Amino acid sequence: MTAAHKTMYEEIEQAINAHEKWIKHINTTIALSAYELDTSDSKVAENNALVEKVSQDYNCPLGKWLHTTHDDLILSSPFYHKVVELHKLFHKEAGQVLTLAFQGDNIKAKAMIAENTDFDQHSKALIETLKAWQKTSQ
Predict the structure, then answer these.
(1) pTM of the prediction?
(2) CA 57 to chain centre
């Protein structure tokens, strides 16, 4: 395994781990929203800023890696554009889920992340594509 491939393998492994942590964070946020609904102006503004940040696909570790790389090996990979698109779709759904959670509608938020929803399908497809990409870098 060359140094470049090892780096890409490790980058993808970190991306997978970061994505899985985000899923747990979203689940925790939904659970807490049922008990900690704060509608003060400052909290609403804070939540809106967080939703805006989460909805953008370039703020998380995977997004930063995807959008700042200049590595031709990464950019020329047939997996690159598919991962970018799936990642963008995931963040769009995540923003919608958090909006519902912050509005106190944790039932709808939970429904949005349930099995076979767009959120679930985009998330699983992203992980599967990252793992397939990772296998090619070994």
Answers:
(1) 0.86
(2) 7
Residue 54 near residue 91, CB atoms below 8 Å: yes
pLDDT of 87 > 60? The answer is: yes
Tell how far CA 107 is from the center of its chain: 21
Q: Tell me the domains of the chain and their CATH numbers.
A: 3-136 (1.20.120)
One-character DSSP codes across the chain: --HHHHHHHHHHHHHHHHHHHHHHHHHHHHHHHTT-----HHHHHHHHHHHHHHHSTTSSHHHHHHHH---HHHHTSTTHHHHHHHHHHHHHHHHHHHHHHHTT-HHHHHHHTSTTSHHHHHHHHHHHHHHHHHHHT-
How far, in Å, CA of 121 to CA of 99, rounded? 19
88-124 per-position pLDDT tens digit: 999 999 999 999 998 889 899 999 999 999 999 999 9
Token pair, residue 126, equals 């992203």
Calpha distance 11→77 (Å, rounded): 14
